[in-house]
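Job type: complex structure
Entries:
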Amino acid sequence: MRSESKVTPVLPSNLAIRIEDLSIRYKINIESKKTLKNALMRASKGQRVRTRTVEAVNHLSLDIPHGSVVGIVGANGAGKSTLMRSIAGILPPSEGRITVDGKISTLLALGVGFNPALSGRDNIILGGLAAGMSRAEIESKTDEIAQFADLPDGFIDMPVRTYSSGMYGRVAFSVAVNMTPDILLLDEALSAGDAAFKEKSFNRMRELCAQARTILIVSHALASINELCDVAIWLHKGKLVANGKPQEITEQYLKFLDVGALPSSYEDL
Amino acid sequence: MNADPRKIQVFEPHRASLPKLKPYLNEFWRRREFATELSRFTDKAEYLDSKLGKVWLVLNPLFLAVIYFLLVSVIRGGTSQTDGFVTLAHILIGLFTFYFAQNTILLGAQSITSGGRLILNQAFPRSLLPLSSALSAARQFIPTIPVYIAVVLIGKLLFPDAALPGLTWNYLYLPLLLLPLAFTSFGLALLFATMNVYFRDTSKLLSYITRIWLYASPVLWLPDMVNGWHRIILYLNPLGPVLSANSRIWIDGLAPTAAQLIACAIWSLLALLTGGYFFISRERDFAVRI
């Protein structure tokens, strides 16, 4: 999964993440399904697959210091989720380099792949193992995670298919924040649970920051970005549009959503 | 708070085909518990509501073996009861063994495409998913061995003249055969899992391939039925040597031949290296293609 360069690049000690000239492109097949049958049919007719290249992230550079909470905003298709996955080492860069210092925990879009037939407790154990913990490590934390998720009585030992979407989100969030990550990546994960759980999760994230852990949050909940983050970045079509104080960035972004105007200096993007 | 030494990870474009193998294999070994638990939990979820489900895993190949035995007996014409019983024992152990390889390959081939969310949201050596499938297949295979032994013991009581070996030291070769069986199956599972990411009908095609493969393997027929240069068919089949050696130990009570053992080693190395190369060199693209 992880590629290591021959000479480990120097990462200044204050930085948790350094992104250097990162581009991520991938091809999508715009025609038939990817099957051997179709491939043979095309080959027999001498046809080639029609693909389209998507530039999900385009020459992006960014330094993220330890202990910062970075909010990432942008319209759909801006490359936010792709950026998060590349920082987690899931999607390889097409160009550039990402250097990361520390253990990463993720709660990314599309959910965590819980097995609906298994109980919340079993899924917590599987989630921890998938994140790289040992069975003993995750078992010692299971009660803490279950307690944090604060499900109604007995639900933690019931199959996940019986959960409401809020309960599901709470368990997923609890697993991610209780992995003691150095870097926590949250993609559209702030909407889990009710107001009380939201407050609790915000407090947990503040605790993590106080321990100099780094958090990246992708969210459309701009008020939460303003409340939690100390810096925000705005991505548009894979490029970094603006980077600065959350209030200023979200204001610019809202203006863009209202009138479709990018800041003047970025109109040529 | 930085761990000392710092845990620096670097993600760069991968131009070369294989990543550095040492860190990859270290990570694979470090996270092996994920594969074992994933397999255990997947089986648990599958058979949670069905106690009979697990029993069926054993009964299914048992019934199939009986059906195949009846077919073979009809095709071959009448044989004595004792010979018939030996044939049944051969089909039974051959089918149980073949099913382990088949399940490893079929479950493994689908493990990447069906592991979508895990692959999109967690970074781990992807080969842990086919490994988890292989462990599930092993969990299905192991209980079939006592069933085989029970059938043979009952058969011995009913047909005392049946030419089946009693206890012999040659049974000690069996664990040795499990290694090439597991390596060959796992290597092929890696190969087909990679293919299935690029061509989604691979797993469908595989169900036909494994059926033909079963007929071409010394399971429904005895390895001794082919003679002269025809015996090459036993060696061109990746599972041929291991199934022949398996039958030789269980049914004849003899040690595997040197040729069988060498062929087992060659096929397992070939499958593991080829499958491993294709899988590991392409697994960084899986998240894009899922």
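Summary: The domain at 15-29+51-103+181-266 of chain A is CATH 3.40.50.300 (Rossmann fold). Strands of chain A lie at 15-29, 51-65, 69-73, 95-101, 104-107, 183-187, 214-218, 231-236, 239-244.
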